[in-house]
Amino acid sequence: MLNEFIKFSDWSITTLIALSPLVGMLLALVFPKPAENSRTIAWGVFAWSLVPLGLTLFLWLSGGFNPALASVTGDQAMIQQVDRVRWVPFFNADYFVGLDGMNFPLVFLTTALTPVCILAAFRIKQRQNVYLALMLLLESAMLGYFVSLNFLLLFLFWEFSLVPMFFIINNWGGENRRYSAFKFFVYTMAGSVGMLIIFEFIYLATGTFDLVVLSRLAQGLPVDPALLAPKLGAGYSNGATLQSMLFSAVQDVGLTSVLGNSNGTPAAIIFWCIFVAFAVKLAVWPLHTWQPDTYENAPTSGSMIVSAVMSKMGAYGMIRLMIMLFPKQTNHFAPILAIFALASILFGAYAGLAQTNLKRLIAYASINHMGYVLLGLAAAASAAPESLGNLDVAIRTSALNGVQAQMVAHGFSTAALFFLAGELYERTGTYQLDQFGGLRKVMPIFAGIMGVAMFANLGLPGLAGFVGEFFIFRGAWGTQPVITTIAVLGLIVTALVLIRMYQKIFYGPVNHKLTNLPDIKVGDWAFNVTLPLIIVLLVFGIYPKPLMDLSNYAATVMAQVFTSL
Amino acid sequence: MNFQIADFTRLIPEFLILAIAALVLLGDVLTRWSKGKESLAERTGEAIAMTLMGLGLAFVMVLIQGGFFSWVQIGDWKFYNFSIFQNLRTSGLDGSILGGAFVVDPLTHIGRLIFIGAAFVTVVLTGKAKPSNNPAEFYALILFATLGMIFMTAGGELIMIYLGVELTSIPLYVLAGYFRRDPVSTEAGAKYYIFGALSSAILLFGMSLLLGLTLMNGQTMNATPTSLSSVKTAVELAFANPEGPSQGVAILGLLFILAGMAYKVAIVPFHAWSPDVYQGAPTSMTAFISTASKTAGFFLLYRVLVTSFDAPSIMGTAAIGVPTSFGGWTSLVAILASVTMLVGNLAALPQTNAKRMLAYSSIAQAGFLMLGLVGTQRDSSVSFLMYLVAYTVTNLVAFGILAVVEDNVGGTDFSNLNGLGRRSPGLTLLLTVAVLSLAGIPPLSGFFVKFYVFIAAWQEGAKWLVIFAVSNTVISLYYYLRFLKAVYFAPAETEEPIKVGFGPGIVMTALTLLIFGLGIVPTWLYGVLEQATIRIGAR
């Protein structure tokens, strides 16, 4: 039964990808501290961070991960390279990690960006080895989160990812670092506590934390009863769905007198609790207020990783825990989700216009871009108009594919923007936009690189950002035409925000204090940091097929779930 | 009532503690006596060293006897040096000695480990709160209390249980009021004593009723009339004849014992003494009273309830809405649990003193813990015991850090904790872990045990209680996060770093690692605890 939708790994490669950074972390901490300005540890950590990237690329290129593989019964995508070991028997919980089309792009994003961020962290002078060790811990926590298929395990990694980020901001951050670090920590924590309690209830009602089993239950697919804890739940029988099991648990407790006798109410409450947890992480309006503070006050490489990868943890959580476990509720509430998405898009864009601080501006642009991600998810789940006909599945699939592509592309372009913002600060000592001016004449290569990153971020065709936004909008037009029409306005305003930023920095009269800034030279450190990012943005902009292929099958399966609702 | 020579070896840890306590007292007489400070320092140092060595030795001894260590065997070679371990082991575990008065089973071993460990930590933590005169008494009293706790856990007979309770309580009264010059501490001692004496009387009255019942039933030809198994027989006989008068006596006996122990472990509505005592006592003593003493009380309650009152008709069920619903002591426990956690949580909200807030928090924790007592199925019992272990470890860290802070700052109000994050990042990190564990945040042990008792109570049918408890965890988050707000957010009066001694530093770090360990790999205790519940007869 289990083997029908799970393909075990021969040599635990998923575990290796997720946990190998921990070994590097320990090595970095125990390695005797070298002399001042020595880069031994830094290079060592960088080399170590290439290991997970190498393993991921190996899986991708060698076909060890086949994104188009269906389960034996053909009712879902095959979960591959699985490691599954009993962990807490009395909670029926396993150490269960695996890859499918929904998490592989994000694993790639994480493993590819961490080396870049570590390279960018070479600027950190104070206790550099600890900082780099924390980066590796963060990488491990995020990778663990993406590959976990058991809620307890996933939540463990989710919480663990807060710890290194908290210390990175708290100890190495900017002016307001303590406040920002605590705000970041408390917001994420407070959002997720509701989700934790909700999942405790789901466990009591169903007897499992296994996300794959739960998603099969949610879709009414057959589940082996042996996978559920025997004494719990209302007793699984054929035809029971997650929704009906939750409802019968609520009936057992006697809460129906409070919640009413509707089958869908408990699931709806649970849906919103899960949404809030991840909306905080994704920085969806109105739960976004921690995000500009965090992005502004984190050190450069910290901003890079938190904006590029960590915010995607929210979107991924929505896919894995919200959409896949509660498709009916997502479908039902999709218009509201779309309105939240629209609010993020518009407010992010317009708030971006008002910013005078470079990092805050990029942060608000990020809120806007994550709005597209949420719009894509809402579009994929929305009820489709009759006129769509056979296009239904294709439309939803393209929205979901767009979400994945947008997450990867935004990760690379935002990381580049934050890095360049940090470099500007190193050169000029300020993030204030009105302090710059005419820098294109002083630093032409810098201007060129930042231009590419900026245009990729706002979605110029030919660069990676375009692919995601195009597919999201293609999907969204089909199912949410009105909201999408308004969202286009956000597209234009974001372009305005970023171009205005570019203009203020690089055009106009040269600020006389800034006439002899060092430019980025071909082959120097800053160039090497940005080069891989720019290459990836160009390659996926021109030839996005490999990236789209990763998620395509899983997206199609998910789209079919919504089509059949 | 015959004492066999083999019984002696089974009591080695107790004899060891007793001997060390006597040595601490005697050694003090033989040390330099004068009015000077050097003399006092020397005497204190000597008493601490001897106490720690004795407790450490006893701890290792229990580990060996319980079979937690195994000897080295490579191929056919069994390392002869270790054969003493093996002798100890074979003579250690199992058996009811002294005619069933003292039960040596895995539960006793777990209790020994917890109490000896907690006493060890307490002694390390005494810090500046060291006694100003007669130091040896102070440490010897800790040892006697530890001994009493073991008797409470191991008691298989009413008189032994009562002796254990008294042996624990009397030293603790003295220790709580040890700072005679400090009115708060004196008040704590006096209050603890009055409430404790009253509860002992109630407990004793309940026991006398049960003894009367066993004697009345005449079931004592072969067994000791006061043993828990005789009580079990008598109580079941009484319940078999619902018309007769003896059923009422059995119920009264049970109620009085429950009430007496509820005083000792501070269950609402018998909790009023505990915040005052916890706040007034020296902080290291608060750590000891709130962890070890409470654990001992719960172990006692568990053993008595599971051994003597586990017939289904007496237990009843805490479930609502099913045909045979709501009655027996489990439903009483369920009600007490819900009231305890609610009152504890609500009373903790407005507190301005960290120690007092933790006192209310431990009342609330007792409420959560009792979810594991609303039934005696395997999961209930194991989760109950696991909760006690995790609670002890976590609370020791929390109070231990408060003790260190108090030594440096001179108080435990929240205003004293302000800016701790800047003054001592390491200490603050440990405090954060402990507080988050108490709040039940994964991956810390507090989450796993809390969730485990939820599952257990759900399986026992007390689903309403689980929902109630879950909503209570949300309330508790508020006051636990206030801790973190104070230490991270509030501005410090000075930036002067806090001095953490070597001993407390090591012990707190080790316990914090244990909090993580019990959380990430919660299974490693499971086997031992399951054994304990099987031996004691939980279903």
TrEMBL record, chain A:
PANTHER family in alphabetical order: NADH-UBIQUINONE OXIDOREDUCTASE CHAIN 4
Domain NADH:quinone oxidoreductase/Mrp antiporter transmembrane: 149-489
A GO CC term attached to the entry: endomembrane system
Taxon lineage: Bacteria, Bacillati, Chloroflexota, Chloroflexia, Herpetosiphonales
Protein name: NADH-quinone oxidoreductase subunit N
Primary location: membrane
Family, per entry: Belongs to the complex I subunit 4 family.
Stored InterPro entries: NADH_Q_OxRdtase_chainM/4, NADH_UbQ_OxRdtase, ND/Mrp_TM
Topological category with respect to the lipid bilayer: Multi-pass membrane protein
Keyword vocabulary terms for this entry: Membrane, Transmembrane, Transmembrane helix
GO BP field: ATP synthesis coupled electron transport; electron transport coupled proton transport
Superkingdom assignment: Bacteria
Signal sequence segment: none
GO molecular function per UniProt: NADH dehydrogenase (ubiquinone) activity; NADH dehydrogenase activity; ubiquinone binding
Subcellular localization, as worded in the UniProt entry: Endomembrane system; Membrane
Spans traversing the lipid bilayer: 12-31, 43-61, 104-122, 129-147, 153-172, 184-205, 265-284, 305-326, 332-354, 361-383, 403-421, 442-462, 482-502, 522-543
